[in-house]
Amino acid sequence: MDINKDLMAASSTPLVLAILADEDSYGYAILKRVRELSGGHVEWTDGMLYPVLHRLERLGYIEASWEVSESGRRRKYYRITTRGRTQLAEERRQWQAVDATLREIWSALSLPVHASPLVLRGA
Amino acid sequence: MAALDCAIRIEEQIEQWRSYLRRRQAIRTNDVEELEDHLREQVSALVGAGLSDDEAFLVAVKRMGDLDTLSREFAREHSERLWKQLVVTPGATGEPGAWGRGEAVVAFCVAAIAALAVKAPELFGLRLDDDTGFYARNLSLFVLPLLTGYFVWKRGSDPATRRWMAAAFVVAAVFANVYSFSPGGYTEVLAAVHLPIALWLVVGIAYAGGRWSEVGGRMDFIRFSGELFIYYVLIALGGIVLTGFMLAMFQAIGIDTEPFFERWMLPCGLLGAVVIASWLVEAKQSVIENMAPVLTRLFTPLFAIVLVAFLAIMTWTGHGLDFQRDILIAFDLLLVVVLGLLLYSVSARDPRTPPGAFDVMQVVLVISALLVDAVALWAIAARISEFGFSPNRVAALGENVILLVNLAWSAVLYVRFLRGRGSFAGLERWQTAYLPVYAVWAAIVVIVFPPLFGYI
Questions:
Q1: Nearest-by-Cβ selection for B63 from A26, A46, A50
Q2: For the CA atoms of B93, B94, B98, B102, what is the dihedral angle to 10 degrees?
Q3: Quick check: B336 pLDDT over 70?
Q4: pLDDT digit string (tens) for B52-71?
Q5: Does A51 contact B74 at a Cβ distance shorter than 8 Å?
Q6: Backbone angles phi, psi at B102, to 5 degrees
Q7: Does the pLDDT at position B341 exceed 70?
Q8: Confidence of residue B290 (pLDDT cuts 50, 70, 90)
Q9: Could you report the per-residue pLDDT of B26-37, keeping only the tens digit for each?
Q10: What pLDDT score does B418 carry?
Q11: Mutate to test the interface with B, among A26, A46, A55 (most CBs of B within 10 A)
Q12: DSSP per residue over B220-248, as a string?
């Protein structure tokens, strides 16, 4: 399943903030976590995560610090800030509203998800 | 032995990949390091899953994404690093040289049209020496619509925005010409001065080309305006030298070129240079990159010292300000300079770097300017009834309030940033959100003031 680009871009902020709210992390680990949580449905192009992280940093939602990893390489770790937590709560509220609305519509829709134009034409 | 070979080969490959990344101006060394860490982690995970080193490297690079797209994403986020690349239409492939030449031709044509446009009214009997008022009021209308057109051509824009821009220019042309100003009166001069300010916003919308709603797009426009100003001054200096030689040389052979200079060279050069300077800012960014921030760095401490010394000595000696009638305009100019210094250091600053000594200097500058201005306003308020409300004074007072509000809130945001309570992005957002305020006030001065003050 391919998720479209806009949806991917919109969900990147809450996803990254939520993962960092759980614990401090770095780029690769964040991506891995996203992949696990979505069961492989959400596939980001790896590099694209970094501009997102830098944007959140600029907005003051997360902070970065360079530390030395267990492999001996310098690694940039990210930590969520208080502002980031506030933003996360706000994002969560908004997404829940969207989600609730969509659920309503799905249940009101009598057609099954896989109803395609082909089936309708056949009927 | 084979394992060692493999390890060497993969190091070489990573080194090569790194050098590709480094060539991208939008991606800094630190970012390359961060991405490299990611790549290595990915490679070792894939090797752990049973892939060979080569395969793992290929997969990891592929997953990292196409370098062009990646560097465009970085450029979008870090626009202060290379705002010039951003304004070049994304995906403008093809031959860069040919594109550059084509654009130069267009720019020179637009400049020539602007230069001729200012002479066009003469066909209808409006002469520069007799109808100075007409030319003064309409000066910006000879060039800014063309400049806007140039940016629309370059960046594109949706039809609705284009209609709005055209409407703005038509409205401006109407208001510049319908009022029956008393010749050389205050309101006419005010209208002539404020119309370009109001219309500059329209140029900005065309310049940003769909990114006007973003902080980044507006910040690019602020950068553009500063660089344009510097280029324009440089071109003007060159023009003065050229004129001096021309006048002197032709004088030597008994020909007086002054009428030619006054009637053609000055007005045409003045307007054509706006377009040429804009094009130069666009095309030659890498040559004199970011002059405005350099000058800012130089003059922020100096201005801060002068202002602080002024405040200290005024308090020490107990001298009140000696007020001339139009002192307010001088203080407006001071605030404009301080705002400019603030704006251009904000525009060049990487929002992620922590506060430093220069930031403290910036805050000192802003706060001391606010104090000086407060003293001036206090003194004016006491005597405003004596001076009376002339259009000039109301306009100057309005501008003073607008600048004061901007700088006061900027100071609050800056102090918050210094104390770690806010991000630098907040200051950027405030400055970019404030841009329309200037244009709205300028439009009020152009449209409302003349009837309000009886066209004096």
A1: A46
A2: -60
A3: yes
A4: 888 888 888 888 888 888 88
A5: yes
A6: -55, -40
A7: yes
A8: low
A9: 788 788 888 888
A10: 86
A11: A46
A12: HHHHHHHHHHHHHHHHHHHHHHHHHHHHH
Q: How far is B350 from chain A (nearest CA, A)?
A: 9
pLDDT confidence tier of residue B256, bands split at 50, 70 and 90: confident
Q: What is the separation, in whole angstroms, between the first and last Cα of chain A?
A: 27
Name the strands in the sheet holding A74-80, side by side, starting at the edge strand that comes first in the sequence: A25-26, A74-80, A62-68
Structural domains of chain A in order of their starting residue, each with its CATH number: 5-107 (1.10.10.10)
Give domain limits for chain B.
2-76, 100-283, 291-422
Beta bridge partners of A77: A26, A65
Q: Of A70, A80, A61, A75, nearest to A23 (Cα)?
A: A80
Q: Is the ipTM of this complex over 0.90?
A: no
Which pLDDT does position A119 carry in this prediction?
43
Residues of A with CB under 8 A from a CB of B: 26-28, 31, 45-48, 50-51, 54-55, 57-60, 64, 69, 71, 73-76, 83
Distance from CA of A26 to the nearest CA of B (A): 9
Judging by DSSP bridges, how do beta strands A25-26 and A74-80 pair with one another?
Answer: antiparallel
Taking Cα atoms as reference points, which of B359, B69, B427 lies closest to residue B219?
B427
Low-confidence ranges of chain A (pLDDT < 50): 115-123
Using a CB-CB cut-off of 8 Å, the residues of chain A touching B66 are: 45
Tell whether the model's pLDDT for residue B403 goes beyond 70.
yes
